[in-house]
Design brief:
The protein is mainly alpha-helical and about 210 residues long. Helices cover about 80% and strands about 5% of the residues. It is built from 5 helices and 2 strands; from the N terminus they run H-H-H-H-H-E-E. A two-stranded antiparallel ribbon has the order 1-2.
Amino acid sequence: MAPTRQDAWSQDEDLLLAEVVLRHIREGGTQLQAFEEVGKQLSRTSAACGFRWNSFVRKQYKSGIELAKKQRKEMKKQSPQVEEEKNGAEVMVEAASSKSNGESVSFQSVIHFLEGLHRKAEVSSTIEEDREKSVEKIKELEKKIFYLAAENEKLSKNLKAIEEDYRSLIEIMERARKMVVLQEEDRQQKVKFQMDKNGNLERVEK
């Protein structure tokens, strides 16, 4: 059994945690299941994963959580529709079977029945293809969101550092300005004037 880690979380681990939790939300799973899955992959406890999610990672993916919840609702809406079409096909098969036993099924009705099944199959296939495409697109968008959030955090830190450097520069310039003003005042205080032999004023340094 691998030892339980207690070191600091890396950026890649935060991304993995967010991706797994959002997937579980989207597919109707629980966050506890997500924490256990991530814990096994990272050799951390599920409690540690849950604490990291609730204290730090979740705050960065509020829009992603809302999107995953909407996708879960859409998937629940689609599932009954597919199941209903499946049940309808089974009913049609049973009806055709009953008619066959009574020897009252015409060739035209069989053709019509098969055409109906074919249309139903095409609709179901289209829905499934659209769902798979949507899931793949969602995964791609989630990855973009993960990396954009990480990039945003990096840029925020850089901006904060630049702001601190700017404030330090302003303080240095202000101190330099005060020193120049004090030196000018001191220089002016050391200057005096006296009358020369011709009656003109001349400046004399103290």
